[in-house]
Each structure stands twice: as C-alpha cells, then as structure tokens.
Write a structure and sequence with these properties.
heterodimer, A: alpha+beta, 10 helices, 11 strands, B: 16 strands
C-alpha cells in the first residue's frame, strides 16, 4: 500500500458511523429516560464495569481483562477480572444493602456478539425495584417503552401462547424431533447435522418464526419463559414448567429482558454450575461465578423485579434506523 | 484443510458443503439475548451458481473450500473441449461446454480469461468484461443511419450473434459487454 492510500483509509476510519442528528436525538432520549425514572422515584447509580464476579450464562461470553502489569501467568493467584455482561451483580448488592428503586445507564460487553443488532460493547439501561412482582415489572416496562417510543401500551402474551399462535407448537409439551420437524416445515434451512438441544430449537423458532411477528402493531411483552430458560428468574410456583421471566419486543426486535428475581443463593449456584458444565461441553471456558452476588443473596436480597433494556435498540426504533452502527458513535471496528 | 468456526463467518468466505464449493454472499448474526447465537448465511454454489440459505448455530464450523483464481488465456477448442493455459505455469486446463456455458460467444484465441480452480481442477472461467469481435456476417449496413436504437442481428467471428446498430457492416469490429451481451460501440470499420 502506498502512502497516499494509507492516508485515505485513515481519514474515513476516525469518523462516527452515526450522523450528528441521530446523536442529538440519542441525547434527548437519554434525558427523557432520566426524567422518567426521576418521576417514578428511582435513584441513578453507578457501579464498576470491571469485576471479579461473572454471571455464568451458557451463551454469554464476558471479556477478561489482563492485570495492570500485562498478561497473567498460569500461576498468578490474584483474582481474575472481567468486563461486565450486565450490571446485575453490583446492582443486586446495592439492593441487598438497602436500595429500594435504582437504575443505571452503563456499558456492557459481550464477546463476539456482532451483527446488525449487536455490538460487543453496548449500552444497557438496567433497573430494579423492591417488592415488585412480575406483573408490576411488566407494567412498568410497558409504560417506559410507551413514554420513550409512543407506540402504546404493550400486549401481554405468554411464551406458550406466542409459540402456539405463530409456530404451531406447544413449547411446554414438545420434544427435539417435533421441533426439528416444525423448523423444516416452516422453511428454516438448517444443516442436516445441526446438533441442537430442546432450548436451541426453541430459540431458533423464536428468532426465525415467532419474534419477527412480535410487536408489529403494538409492543409485545412475552412472559412465562420455559423454566429451562429461567436464567436468574424465579420459577413459577403454580406451574413449575415456567419461570417469571419476560421480554419486550417491538417491530420484531428484542428490546428488554426482565426477571422477578431469584433470591435463593443455593439455587443460583446450582444454575451457574449447570451453565458451566454446558459451557465446557460446548468447548468454552468455565467462568469463576459470582461470589459477591451469592453473598448478597444469602444475606438479604429483598423480593424485587429487575429489567435490562438495550438502549442502542431503543434509539434505533426512535429514529427508524435498522443497524446498530447508525446509532452509536464508534462501533467495534472503529473503537 | 482449514476450518472456519462461526465466529470467522463473513461475506466473501469460500466454504465446502456436501462436496461442493460455495461463496458466502451474505451473513447475518442473530441471537436472542440469553440464547444461542445463530448465523444466517446465503451461500452461492460456485459450480452451478444457485443460492441456498443455511442457518448455523454458534460453535458450528464449515470446511474451507480450496479455491484458486488464476489468469489464463484461451488456446483453442477441440470438439466439446475448450483448452486454456495458465499464464504463469503454462499448464493447460480443459473445460467442457457446460462449464464454459454462455462464455463461448466471446472466446477467441489468446483471449485473457480468469479461471477458478477447485481442488486444483477448473470449474468456471470468466472472459474480460468487454471484448472486441470482428463482424463476419450481417445484412448490409444502412449508410448514414447513425442511430443506435435501430438494431439488427450481427454474426461475429466466434459464431455468436449479437444485436448491433443498423450501420454495422461486415468487417467492422464491435465491442460487446460480456456481462450483459450488449453492444457497446464500434471499434473499427
């Protein structure tokens, strides 16, 4: 490459991928968000982006950071440090220490997640309110989305009802063979040897068939996810097949994930151990876990509901953009 | 052979599927927040040209296809065999009528052509974007009619026919765009 072309490529790379108008709109939305939380009695908090805790999730890969003097040796006994995949652990530690209604706008990091709707570094809005049950959490999320986007209150649809309606299967009474056959019938083209478990097939049907039809007229909040996808949510006491987890969809896009929060430290430890076993089977590294979060839960995590909202995607909807690069200043490749 | 993991998937990748080479012409990353990642790909068959959709799950992999692109020149045709020579190695490659396909219309001796090799065997060739061909036969040219919108069939030296303006005459050399098969201009009278 000659000097001239080198210079040409350098000049274009420094510029933001979002237009100035979009960045102005993004700032306006953020100020609207803050006044909404303010009006509802929430306190804005800040917690570390770097922590020794990791939420062990089969399909989320945190980014490890190296120690201040460079890369760690295998014998280094100091704790490993990670960029958060969400502020969940730190915010629950605040709740266990007396906070009642808190929110945070922060960066979260998820390795290798890059696409039209994904940037490995992205902005999350996360909030928790003490004594909220799932229904309260759904109601609050619906009001917040309506305030920001003006698309009306959300329709509430159970995970099971959505699958029956759009994919013609009962997600709570099915098996791998049936789901695979249904994927083929619905024209999802998969490699013959695709090795999927039940939840993989459900997620494939969700992304390919169900989700594109959610929230086309009014926003949709899907609730009562299968217990196998509970993550950090309570399993429903009346129906052990489902968990008190809910998600917001608008224009077929997944925007927020909420839980009526699990408070049982032993149960969370079991779930994270399970996730680590699955990670090892997937040939991923196992993660150290969330000791500080477990300690907070053991001490006194009050009943609460928490929600994480993808802020970049809210800005996309508010501005009619279809790619995340259009609403962030510098995406991964230009960071 | 190299293997591409889903995290390597991107537009332009050449991969092998059911024993045939494919070009990844589109790749979309989709992932439910808490769920498995899926990679939705559009793949074009490099031998037959058809496009297929395939969805892979995070952690899957595809074998890379051993594809090489070389510069050749067309030497000659012998019955149903078209013979080309690698400009660097002077090695000769033979293509069938089916492999040459519509490109036969443009092939004349010594013409530079791009050739794609799969596992060192030729699969397709591409002629230059524009080629110059001598007119062998056509109805007599309408003198003075310089309009390019009045056309007539013109047979060129390769034996193929193209629609050219009415003023073209036998012995003229015309430039044809090989991507569209359309007349571009008269090069020589």
């Amino acid at each position: 490459m000659n000097q001239h072309s080198d210079k040409t490529s350098r000049t274009s790379e420094f510029r933001p991928t979002a237009t100035w108008d979009i960045l102005v709109r993004r700032a306006e939305l953020l100020s609207q968000l803050r006044s909404f939380f303010d009006q509802h009695g929430f306190l804005e908090v800040e917690t570390p982006l770097i922590s020794t805790d990791t939420i062990v999730d089969r399909h989320l890969d945190p980014i490890e950071i190296c120690s201040e003097d460079g890369f760690r040796s295998p014998t280094d006994s100091r704790p490993r440090l990670w960029l958060q995949t969400s502020p969940e652990s730190a915010m629950k530690r605040l709740l266990a220490s007396g906070a009642t209604a808190i929110y945070q706008v922060c960066k979260a990091f998820r390795l290798r997640e890059r696409g039209n709707l994904h940037n490995p570094e992205f902005t999350l809005v996360e909030w928790y309110r003490r004594d909220d049950r799932m229904d309260d959490g759904i109601e609050f999320l619906s009001t917040l989305a309506d305030t920001l986007l003006n698309r009306g209150p959300a329709e509430k649809l159970s995970y099971q009802a959505a699958f029956l309606k759009y994919a013609n299967v009962d997600p709570l009474k099915t098996n791998v063979e049936q789901l695979q056959a249904q994927c083929t019938k619905l024209g999802i083209s998969i490699p013959a040897q695709l090795d999927c478990e039940l939840d993989d097939w459900l997620e494939l049907l969700l992304t390919e068939v169900v989700q594109p039809r959610l929230g086309q007229q009014t926003p949709v909040i899907l609730y009562n996810f299968p217990a196998s996808q509970a993550a950090l949510a309570n399993v429903c006491e009346l129906d052990r097949r489902v968990a008190r987890r809910f998600e917001l969809f608008i224009d077929g896009m997944e925007l927020a994930n909420g839980y009526e929060e699990l408070r049982d430290a032993d149960e969370l430890e079991r779930r994270m151990e399970m996730a680590n076993r699955q990670r090892i089977a997937d040939q991923k590294q196992s993660l150290p876990g969330a000791e500080k979060l477990l300690a907070a839960m053991q001490d006194n995590l009050p009943p609460c509901t928490g929600v994480a909202l993808g802020w970049d995607r809210i800005v996309m909807l508010a501005t009619g953009c279809t790619r995340i690069d259009q609403v962030v200043s510098f995406p991964w490749e230009r960071a | 052979m190299a293997t591409y993991n889903t995290s390597d998937f991107r537009k332009g990748l050449k991969v092998q599927l059911d024993g045939e080479p494919y070009l990844m012409i589109e790749m979309n990353f989709v992932k439910p927040g808490k769920g498995n990642a899926f990679y939705k790909c559009k793949l074009r068959n490099l031998i037959r040209g058809g496009v297929i959709d395939r969805t892979y799950k995070g952690g899957d992999s595809l074998e890379s296809a051993d594809i090489e692109e070389i510069q050749t020149q067309f030497l000659y045709r012998q019955a149903d065999v078209w013979v080309f020579m690698d400009n660097n190695t002077y090695e000769q490659y033979e293509l069938s009528n089916e492999q040459v396909d519509e490109a036969w219309k443009y092939l004349k001796e010594e013409m530079p052509c791009q050739m794609m090799l799969y596992n060192s065997l030729p699969i397709t060739m591409t002629p230059p974007n524009q080629v110059e061909l001598a007119v062998e036969y056509c109805e007599p040219g309408a003198k003075g009619n310089t309009a390019t919108n009045v056309t007539k069939p013109v047979k060129v030296e390769t034996g193929a026919e193209f629609l050219c303006p009415a003023f073209i005459d036998i012995g003229n050399v015309v430039k044809i765009d090989t991507r569209t098969g359309e007349y571009v201009e008269r090069v020589r009278t």
